[in-house]
Amino acid sequence: MAMRSVRTRLDHNKMRKTKVLLRDPVVRRAIPKTVMLTEARLRNMLRLYSTVYVKPNVGALGIGVMRVRKLKTRGRVRYEWRYKLLTRHTRTISALYGLIRAYKKSGAYLVQRGIHLLRYKGRRYDLRVMTQRRSTSRPWKVTGILARVAAPGRIVTNGSQGASIHPIMQVFRSKMSQGKAANKRHQVERLSLRIARRYTRAHPSCVELGLDVAVDHRLRSWLLEMNTKPQITPFRKLKNRSMYRTILAYRRSARR
Q1: Angle, alpha carbons 31-132-189 (nearest 5°)
Q2: Which residue from 18, 108, 109, 169 has the least number of CB within 10 angstroms?
């Protein structure tokens, strides 16, 4: 079966994919709390967390993603809303929700707990991990992993929105020793493989996943998003293209 026809039948609904992954207790601990957007749920999430992200339930490339932060000044609470390069402030959840509705695209949205990402040269970054297998009967492998560093002023780390691409060890070594960085990379890869195995228990025809993984200031790993049609262009931007060649080789094998 051609890989292209397999991939078009995979689920692109982020909440449904999340629910599949929540069935694994190890993976569940790596998933930030995520709920469907309503005004009441937005209010509750901002009671629990100081930062949340509002994103389309079906979408890619960081398009439509907004960030909300709860700020306290002299005992007064206000909310900072960010979208692309826009910033607005509101004093009530109702006004905030109205702002979100004014800028959101059609379709359902999610509210996800915000993770305080590690920074590289003062800018936030996350990781893109490629997991693939040569056929539905072969084991999953991590075939590529890199860091995406957000462009100045941006709230997302997608390359389509100006993020820069770096080798994972380069950004890890800016905050960790060589040994700790290597161990953290191994932990991220092990988590990614477990996620892939869990997902394919529900979708056995899947042969490729792109995972957006964050590492917070306590070095805890989080799964921000899972992509069933991942872009591999960022791997071409690395000086060493060996991972890109490996990813392509796995794709060609899966198409046979």
Answers
A1: 50
A2: 108
Q: Report the predicted TM-score, pTM, of the whole model to 2 decimal places.
A: 0.89
The dihedrals phi and psi of 70, each to the nearest 5 degrees, come to: -95, 120
pLDDT digits (tens, 9 = 90+) for 97-130: 999 999 998 889 999 999 999 999 999 999 999 9
Counting Cβ atoms within 10 Å, is residue 141 exposed (0-12), middle (13-18) or buried (19+)?
Answer: middle
For the chain, list the domains and their CATH numbers: 3-31+116-255 (3.30.470.20), 34-113 (no CATH)
CA 59, chain centre distance (Å): 12
- Contacting residues for 245 by C-beta, under 8 A, at least 6 apart: none
Q: Which two tokens stand for residue 105?
A: 């695209």
* Distance between CA atoms of residues 200 and 203, nearest Å: 4
Q: Give the three-class secondary structure for 26.
A: helix
CA distances from 17 to 58, 168, 195, 202 (A): 11, 26, 11, 9
Q: Max Cα separation, the chain?
A: 64
The kind and range of the H/E element at 203 are: none
